[in-house]
Give the backbone structure.
Amino acid sequence: MPLININLLRREQSTVSRLTQATTIVGVVAGSVVVLLLLVVVFLYTTIAIRSGQKDGLVQEQTELAKKADAISEYEQTFYPELTLGQQAAAYQQQVEGVKELVDNHKYFTLYLTEIAVNTPTSVVYQSFGSDSTNRLIVTGSASTYGDVSKLAKQFEGLSFAKGASIQDARLNRGGGGKPVQFTLVIELKSAAELDRLPGPDRPFGSSTGASPGPEPTALPAPTGSPGASAGSLPLEGE
Amino acid sequence: MARRPIISLSGKYNTIAAVVGVALLLGILILAFLVRPAWARLQELGREIPVEQQKRDLAKQDLENLGSAKTFFDERADDVETVNAALPIEPQVPSILLILEELAVDSGVQLDGFTPQQLGAQGGLTEQQARPTGVDTLEITANFSGRYPQLINFLYSLERSLRIVDVKVINVNAVRGGGNDPVITGNISFTAYYKTVEGGPQPSETAQTGQDGQDGGANAAPPAGGGP
């Protein structure tokens, strides 16, 4: 209840009263704004405290997980000396991928030689067999005539492990002894994975001693019916 | 004559002005020194917490992966041994020579003069294209002599050996002896593989130059096989 100065006129009293009320209202509003701001501050700092706690908890959790991971990482294996478990796992995965690819492209020379022996005429003798990384078999040798080389190339096209065969080189060798026509034939090999009759081991990689307990070599497909192969062996050129 | 005001109103106005001024000043101070830094810190936390959550999730995932890896290695020790025998993480030249020697003895082929040559991953472009990523190669050349069936038996066993070894080249130098079973002499090149891995043993520079027998005392391997 505002005090009334009885010495004032009614109009002046009214003015004084309004001013007093205005002062009060301004004071209350200003105070409210300040209090509100302070409440906002309290809210913000409380939120900060909660969020900081959340962050600290996450960091703590990470530290504990890292400690557990470190403890597991000390796992040791003979094959991976001084490698952490993570590195071991990565290495193993890479090895498995490498092995898969190598096995798919493994060279089975016994299959190649056996089939080549069956398909070789008497007029041809061989000097070398080589494989390269692009899955080709390169055969060098000598023959009696160019026709024999051509016939041989045709025969090679029908080999079970061949995608195709071509004559890379054929020339007359007048000076040396033996068969006069020297040749180089290239056979495009199917990958081991593509071969119908995969001559692979009975179990993936054999025994731990290095050799697999696969079928005995006598179980090799017998080279029969060869026009020129003697006793199933390749005609090889010597001195 | 003008009537003199009985009361001065300026005091009231001054009070209002002072209240507004103080409130304004307090508000500015609160905003500047309390609200603004708190807001900035909150924003910073808002950025940091998801990052920490992501790190925590990754750490959890790593731990799970490591646990799985450990379980796998424990349960599949045989597979791990097999894979490491097929494609070890280092050249292991002596072990290859032992395998070759053992197979040669078993089949009756005589092998001598082993020449191992580590090509690493520095081979020619064609070699690199055809080789599985990161797989390094080791080439071994040896002279051989034996009868044709012995040679075939040797190759047959080699193709099925635990360590992956590919025959690269067979050169025939001479065929001696008549009849159906002559003795063949020549040289044979093998390619063996290994996989260098991060953190694992790395082949030395000198070993990669491919000098004869400089790795693992390869030339110390005795001639193998019983001869024809």
